[in-house]
Every structure is written in C-alpha cells, then in structure tokens.
Automatic annotation (TrEMBL):
Compartment(s): Membrane; Vacuole lumen
Signal peptide range in chain numbering: 1-20
Main location: membrane
Residues of the Glycosyl hydrolase family 32 N-terminal domain: 46-364
Keyword hit for Transferase: no
Positions of the Glycosyl hydrolase family 32 C-terminal domain: 367-559
Reactions it catalyzes: Hydrolysis of terminal non-reducing beta-D-fructofuranoside residues in beta-D-fructofuranosides
Gene3D superfamilies, sorted: Exo-inulinase, domain 1, Glycosyl hydrolase domain, family 43
Family note: Belongs to the glycosyl hydrolase 32 family.
Bilayer topology: Single-pass type II membrane protein
Protein name per UniProt: Acid beta-fructofuranosidase
Assigned keywords, A-Z: Glycosidase, Hydrolase, Membrane, Signal, Signal-anchor, Transmembrane, Transmembrane helix, Vacuole
One biological process term in Gene Ontology: carbohydrate metabolic process
Length: 566
C-alpha cells in the first residue's frame, strides 16, 4: 500500500466512522495487502475466516447432526464487496470447518451479489435457502437454492432454481427495488401454506412484507405487511420466531399457540442496531401484535454495543433457539486493510423469554465452556471504594470471567433527577467518576500503569423511589490509537439490587469484549485494539471506584483455549 492510499483510507474512515455497517469502497474491494504476521487482534474463539471481510450470518441450520453457518463474505478483500455465501460446519457451534462458498453469483437474478437470507427445513427434513440476489439492474430480488445431494451431511453444493427470481419488485407491487431484501426462515400456517418475511420500507415506514406460498416456489404477496412502523426506515434482516412463555427451551419457527409469544427482530439500517418487539402472532389476520405497554416503537435491543444483522434458528438437537450475530470492527478501514481482515461473529447465544415476559435473555451456548481451562476462583470478599483486585492465573487476552456483586447500603445510591439515555449516562460517568454506589466491575485489557484499559461496570442510581442499575462498557481508554471508534456503550439492566446479585460475565478475546449483565438480561459487545495491553502484557482486574464498599460474592475466571476455526 502506498502512503497516499493509507492517507485516503484514513480520510474515508474519518468521514464514515466505523459503525456496524458496510460502506462502499469501490477501489478497495479487491485490494489485498501483505498481511502482517503480527496479529494481536485476531480472535481465538470467536468465529472469523483466515482473511478478508465478513458480515451477516446467513441461513443457520442443523442438518445431519451438523450445524451449518453461511455468512456474507468478500473473497477478495478486507472491505465489503463481491459478496458470496461462505460456508462452515460445526458439531458444537465452537469449532468450525470451512467448506467452499455455497452460493455465489451465477444467474442473472444474483449476478451482482448474493446477499442475506435464511434456511427453512421443508417436510421430510429438506433444507431450502431463500436469499436476496442483486440482478443486472441492481434490483433486489428473492431467490431459492436447494442442496444438490441430501445424503451429503456437509451440504456442499447448492442448486438454484431456474425459476429465480421468485419475488421481485414490479410496477404493480410498487416495491422499492433498493429496499427489498433479507428473507426470513419461513413458517407454516394452519392452512398448510408457507409464510416468509422480506425487509422493506415505504418512504420512512420500515416494514416486513409477507409472502405466502403453497409449494415454496410460487409466492404471493399478502395484502398487508406482517408489521410496519412509521419513521423506522429500512428493516434489514428481519427475524420472526416464537418463544415459550416459560422456560428456556426453544421451539420450531412454525409453532403458535397461547403458550408462546412471538418476537419480531429487525436490523434498523438507520440506527445500525438490532431491535426487537415481543408480542403475539395473530394467525387469522397474519399480523404481529406487539404486547401492550411494551413497545409501539423499537426500544429493546439484543445488544447495546456493536452487534448487527443477527439471525436465530431452532436447534432441534438441544431443543433451543440459538442467536448468531455480526460484530463489525471499530478500527479504521486503513487498519483493516493492513491486518487483512474485518468482522467477526459473536459467540452463539441461547435465547429465551425472561419470566417477566418483558424481555429476552441471552446466554453463550453451553458448549463454549469446553474451552475453559485453568479455573481461578476467589473466595467472597469485600472490595473497598478505590480498590483494584488483580485476577491472576488466567490468560488475560483470552478469558471468560464471571463476577457477582452484592450491595448492602442502597441508601448511598446517587439520585438521578431525570431519566437520561443510558449510553449518554455511561459516557458522562465513566469508570473514573465516583458515585455512592459504583462504578464497580471489571477492567480488561489493562496495561501496566493503566494507560490503556476497557472497563465494564455497574452503577446504581435512585430514580423516583426506585433503584436503577446501569451497565456500561467504556472503551474511551481502550487504546492509545485514537483512529479507533472509542464510543462508550450502556444500558439499564432490569435487576433488583436489593434482592438480587449483580452478575457480569465477560468473554475476552484479543479484540472483543462480550459482556452479559444480570444473567443475560443485558448484553454489550465492544471491539478494542490495545497497543500496550496485548499478549502477555494485558491484565484483568476487579475494581470498585465508588465511595461505598461492595461485596464480591463470586469471582470465577478461566483462560480460554483456542477453538479450531479454519
Ligand atoms: N447486509 C447484506 C444485506 C443486508 C445487510 C449485504 C445487513 O442483505 O441488508 O451484505 O448488514
């Protein structure tokens, strides 16, 4: 790369920032670099291919005892472009084996790209994929592919139907041809017909268009979208699925009844976050009805950090619903090209409805615990205001840490005069700002002398006679390299600090800090690129920077072994 290319790249990244999306860098889509052998930021147990750009997880399914993951991939470079469906398989959602790309441009209906989509298991356990193709006019259309050989558990080869495209924008349906993409997993209605959603918008009204089919090939657009909201903009990667009203098990996407609620998740292109609503699916009217009082707008998020274009599937082996999501880089495009890759996937999460019915709970799939090694357990101890406790004995760049705090003197909590956006609250009150109760939590990727660290912490407020728990992930001190996106993230967690412990689990993996607060009621994923706190120079601490002492009732930490991924 020449100096001027580097300058241009830096300029681009300043102009566009590095949010959870893909920007067009036409000249860079095939730019390969002499990948540096010094790769402190490559992850050890988060999914990523050996090189190049990745984004959305596509068409996850379990078939022949194997998990199949497809994903948006640029085979030629470290920025978005030349998109194909790359393909990997796994027995445990942790270790993955790469296969050749499953779907790549080959027909007029996808000649300019094979974008996101989903898999459905038809009667007789026959997988089928619906995906968005970009046609010669750059219109977005929906296509179908089926495995060539159902007796191959690897499902290596996929055949596209000559009938493609099966759904297309026309002058009659008035669908906007650049806002028509990302078909969901289909579900069966009581009438025996298949239904599928496609993300779209009409002016600023985001919507999930509904299509119905008897045979999966001939699709008719329903009169009404399944749901739409004014002002939300383009709905990318919709996902629609039932969750049991109690318990942690998952159910097949076609299940409906009064023992389930339905979740509608959309990736809001305008906001670059994954939002969801909980409600019910009125099968007679084919509409989604959000629960009263919860949300007429999208408020709830899967993850309050960097996490986008996610998708769930029903794992019929373990009877659970599993969520996969893309975590974009927070580094500059110039740095991505230098390191030769961009994008990872979050650890697959089991997902279920919280017993309150008001939100979902997410927890890393249990299989990830197979990677835990060298357990370190700390006896319960008091951590005084201003105290740091180093967690020794684990590999600080590749670890899993579970910590729980108990607070007694809730009267010391800072009073919040008015409700503020939690992310703004976290940015204003970082880990260096003391209060009566908090901040307390973890410092990860901490360098000697603390010139660099990322802090994940709680802070408790008193607001209108209620205790309010804030969870923050503060990246502002994570790197001396200020070209990175150092945004602080935060959310309130629906826990009662009087009767419940404040639990935090953080998965640390070289350039990712994936945190689960309140036993999975709040998730925050962050990307960080320390310059000093790398390799054996990184440290992990528990800290309390509040004026009141708090009790660490549990602290368990493990080094994480490297997963076999490629
Ligand atoms: N990524 C795909 C689109 C989708 C977007 C293109 C979401 O199908 O809308 O790579 O990240």
């Amino acid at each position: 790369m020449t100096i001027s290319t580097i300058f241009l790249l830096t300029l681009f990244s300043v102009i566009y920032g590095s949010g959870a999306t893909h920007h067009l860098f036409i000249n860079l889509q095939t730019l390969s670099s002499d990948y540096s052998s010094n790769q402190p930021y490559r992850t050890a147990y988060h999914f990523q291919p050996p090189k190049n750009w990745i984004n959305d997880p596509n068409g996850p399914l379990r078939y022949g005892g194997l998990y199949h993951l497809f994903y948006q991939y640029n085979p030629k470079g470290a920025v978005w472009g030349n998109i194909v469906w790359a393909h990997s398989v796994s027995k445990d959602l942790v270790n993955w084996a790469p296969l050749d790309p499953a779907i790549f441009p080959s027909q007029p209906s996808d000649i300019n790209g094979c974008w996101s989509g989903s898999a459905t298991l038809l009667h007789g356990n026959k997988p089928v994929i619906l995906y968005t193709g970009i046609d010669p006019m750059n219109h977005q259309v929906q296509n179908l592919a089926q495995p060539k050989n159902l007796s191959d558990p690897f499902l290596r080869e996929w055949v596209k139907t000559p009938k493609n495209p099966l759904m297309a924008p026309t002058s009659a349906n008035k669908i906007n041809s650049s806002s028509f993409r990302d078909p969901t997993t289909a579900w069966l209605g009581k009438d025996g017909h298949w239904r599928v959603l496609v993300g779209s918008k009409r002016r600023t009204r985001g919507m999930a268009l509904l299509y119905i089919s008897k045979d999966f090939f001939n699709w008719v657009q329903a009169k009404h979208p399944l749901h739409s909201t004014l002002g939300s903009g383009m709905w990318e990667c919709p996902d629609f699925f039932p969750v049991l009203n109690s318990g942690q098990l998952g159910v097949d996407t076609s299940v409906n009844g009064d023992y389930v609620s339905h979740v509608l998740k959309v990736s809001l292109d305008d906001k670059k976050h994954d939002y969801y609503m909980i409600g019910s699916y009125n099968a007679a009217k084919d509409v989604f009805v959000p629960d009263e009082g919860l949300n007429s707008e999208f408020v709830l998020r899967y993850d309050y950090g960097k996490y986008y274009a996610s998708k769930t599937f029903f794992d019929d082996g373990k009877k659970r619903r599993v969520l996969l999501g893309w975590v974009n880089e927070s580094s500059s495009v110039a740095d991505d090209i230098k390191k030769g890759w961009s994008g990872i996937h979050a650890i697959p999460r089991a997902i279920w409805l919280h017993k309150s019915g008001k939100q979902l709970v997410q927890w890393p799939v249990v299989e990830i615990e197979k990677l835990r090694a060298n357990p370190v357990n700390l006896a319960p101890k008091l951590i005084k205001g201003g105290q740091l406790v180093q967690i020794n004995g684990v590999t600080a760049t590749q670890a899993d840490v579970e910590i729980s705090f108990q607070v007694s003197k809730l009267g010391k909590a800072e009073v919040l005069g008015y409700l503020t956006d939690p992310q703004i609250l976290c940015s204003k009150k970082g880990s260096a700002v003391k209060s009566g109760l908090g901040p307390f939590g973890l410092l990860v990727f901490a360098s000697e002398g603390l010139q660099e660290y990322t802090s994940v912490f709680f802070r408790i407020f008193r607001y209108q006679h209620k205790n309010l728990v804030l969870l923050c992930s503060d990246q502002s001190r994570s790197s001396l390299n200020k070209n990175n996106d150092l945004t602080t993230y935060g959310t309130f967690v629906d826990v009662d600090p009087l009767h419940e412990k404040l639990s935090l689990r953080t998965l640390i993996d070289h350039s990712v800090v994936e945190s689960f607060g309140g036993e999975g009621r709040a998730c925050i994923t962050a990307r960080v690129y320390p310059t000093l706190a790398i390799n054996d120079k990184a440290k992990i601490y528990a800290f309390n920077n509040g004026t009141s002492d708090v009790n660490i009732s549990r602290l368990s930490a493990w080094s994480m072994k490297k997963a076999h991924i490629h």
